[in-house]
Recover the amino acids of this structure.
């Protein structure tokens, strides 16, 4: 009975065989990388996977529902601080789960309070939350612990890589499944026309709150993992506001209309940033300029172009099979 | 009139916006199997009354019931799942979904416990019923107005309502399209759904409604069979006054 209800809400249709096979293959290939590559590659890929998780999570809620959240830094920072505090006593997988649960819980509370607000008010509130946590930790550390930041127990690159691979794989697979479920479709309806959605029977408030909280969880988990790589965190690394803005840019950059847009966005975004950082002192300016140009030229993102072409093909071919696409 | 015959009732329904009373102490009933027309000049409060029934707004006063249960404390989604579906005066379709996906959303969310397979079957059924199957490939925002409105109706129908409320679906359509829309409304009634419709196209209203209620400045000024209402001096005055 309970299981039936869960299935009804969160499981629409299985992903196609081809899609499942490609994803399974990609994950298996990824799993072999630390064994064969140099030591730099797993670290580079760890950052890419981190960015992917941020942008996939952000797109699933904000991209679909049209509620621009700037709370990513909050959840990421919560994960980092949790790891810094508990990382010495507990194994990594435990703190990752705790970080996810904690981010979920905070997301639930924030969602209940704010998701009755529409549009820009929600965005401002979530931005305020990230800013508040940043300032609060600064104040707290100054007033009580009398330190700036904390050391985090380090793990080697391979451990970090595998931990992130697990979060990345779970997030990706979950999103692919959820996209076709009532839950994912509810969000899509909300984003397209919230009034219409609600008058068709969509439980709008509950869906928004739950989605906001669920997508906070993996962000908390990757925050926990990456804090061990950074080794030393302070309020500005943990609750850095860039962390809130990057997923928005990555999702716009890659395109939000498909599962893969945010991934492409994250990969290109991180690779470009990493490259520019190494070759020039003007990286932020060039980076900003590239972003602006891409967004102007490709309003639906890099993947949006692919999507448009595919859609044209499909409708030229009768359009019958198009309806089952997420 | 026994309660078995009434499917929706409203008693003393009132809605104010600031100092302005948009719907003032209105009593009405919708009976099983009928088409009830709701007419009145622009700004009379027709859409606001719809909004009170579907809980888009909360009525300030009064009681609205559906099948004998009070509904004017419920959320719009609950009311939809109970069996009251509506369209919006300005069509609110989902622009980035296909025509079929639009309809499927109604099927998936409008009923408790429907499976995905059942929703797919229902979607196909409604697409055909509403004559949208030939247009499944169109891009929703590019569709002509008549089809946009038809899709709006189809989406509401896919929730399998007991009552369908339609708000000016014929406005802006040419005579052929009005004819097609009337035919669809007739088919929906024949399928056992009670209909409450707001309409300005008098020819349509007079031809297909069983009864008509008339609002003016938020108040109910007439009620009855179409020819009775058409000959009501107050109604004539209101409409002539508007045209003058
Ligand atoms: N959300 C609102 N806020 C303020 N006034 C409103 C609102 N909605 C409707 N009204 C006013 O209520 C009156 C009735 O409007 P409406 O129900 O839309 O009329 P109708 O559908 O009969 O043309 C109008 O004077 C309109 O301006
Ligand atoms: Mg109106």
């Amino acid at each position: 009975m309970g299981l039936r209800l869960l299935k009804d809400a969160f499981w629409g249709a299985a992903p196609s065989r081809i899609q499942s096979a490609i994803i399974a293959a990609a994950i298996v290939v990824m799993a072999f990388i630390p064994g064969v590559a140099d030591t730099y590659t797993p670290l580079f890929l760890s950052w890419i996977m981190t960015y992917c998780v941020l942008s996939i999570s952000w797109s699933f809620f904000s991209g679909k529902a049209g509620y621009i959240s700037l709370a990513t830094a909050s959840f990421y920072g919560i994960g980092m601080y949790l790891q810094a505090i508990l990382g010495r006593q507990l194994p990594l997988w435990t703190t990752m789960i705790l970080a996810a649960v904690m981010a979920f819980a905070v997301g639930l509370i924030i969602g209940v309070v704010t998701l009755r607000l529409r549009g820009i008010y929600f965005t401002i509130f979530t931005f305020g939350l990230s800013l508040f946590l940043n300032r609060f930790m600064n104040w707290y550390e100054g007033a009580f612990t009398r330190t700036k930041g904390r050391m985090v127990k380090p793990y080697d690159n391979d451990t970090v890589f595998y931990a992130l691979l697990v979060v990345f794989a779970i997030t990706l697979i979950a999103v692919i499944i959820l996209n076709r479920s009532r839950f994912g479709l509810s969000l899509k309806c909300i984003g397209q026309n919230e009034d219409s959605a609600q008058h068709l029977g969509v439980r709008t408030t509950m869906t928004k709150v739950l989605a906001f909280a669920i997508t906070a969880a993996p962000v908390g988990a990757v925050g926990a993992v990456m804090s061990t790589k950074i080794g030393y965190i302070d309020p500005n690394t943990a609750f850095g506001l860039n962390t809130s803005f990057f997923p928005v840019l990555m999702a716009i950059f890659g395109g939000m209309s498909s599962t893969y847009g945010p991934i492409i966005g994250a990969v290109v975004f991180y690779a470009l940033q990493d490259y520019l950082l190494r070759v020039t002192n003007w990286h932020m300016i060039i980076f900003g300029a590239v972003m602006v140009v891409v967004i102007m030229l490709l309003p639906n993102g890099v993947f949006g172009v692919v999507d448009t072409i595919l859609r044209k093909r499909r409708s030229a071919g009768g359009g019958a099979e198009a309806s089952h696409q997420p | 009139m026994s309660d078995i015959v009434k499917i929706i009732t409203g008693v003393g329904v009132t809605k104010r916006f600031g100092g302005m009373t948009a719907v003032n102490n209105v009593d009405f009933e919708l009976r099983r199997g009928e088409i009830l027309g709701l007419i009145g000049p622009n700004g009379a409060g027709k859409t606001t009354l719809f909004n009170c029934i579907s809980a888009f707004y909360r009525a300030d006063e009064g009681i609205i019931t559906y099948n004998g249960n009070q509904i004017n404390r419920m959320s719009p989604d609950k009311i939809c799942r109970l069996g009251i579906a509506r369209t919006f005066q300005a069509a609110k379709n989902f622009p980035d979904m296909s025509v079929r996906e639009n309809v499927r959303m109604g099927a998936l969310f409008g009923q408790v416990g429907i499976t995905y397979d059942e929703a797919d079957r229902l979607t196909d059924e409604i697409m055909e019923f509403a004559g949208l199957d030939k247009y499944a490939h169109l891009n929703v925002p590019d569709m002509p107005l008549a089809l946009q409105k038809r899709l709006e109706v189809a989406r509401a129908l896919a929730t399998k309502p007991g009552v369908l409320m339609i708000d000016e679906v014929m406005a802006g359509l040419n005579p052929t399209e009005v004819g097609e829309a009337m035919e669809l409304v007739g088919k929906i009634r024949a399928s056992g759904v009670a209909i409450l419709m707001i309409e300005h196209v008098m020819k349509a209203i007079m031809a297909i409604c069983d009864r008509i209620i008339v609002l003016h400045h938020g108040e109910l000024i007439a009620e009855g069979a179409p020819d009775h209402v058409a000959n009501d001096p107050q109604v004539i005055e209101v409409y002539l006054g508007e045209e003058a």
Notes: The two ends of chain A are 27 Å apart (CA to CA). Residues 2-240 of chain A form one domain.
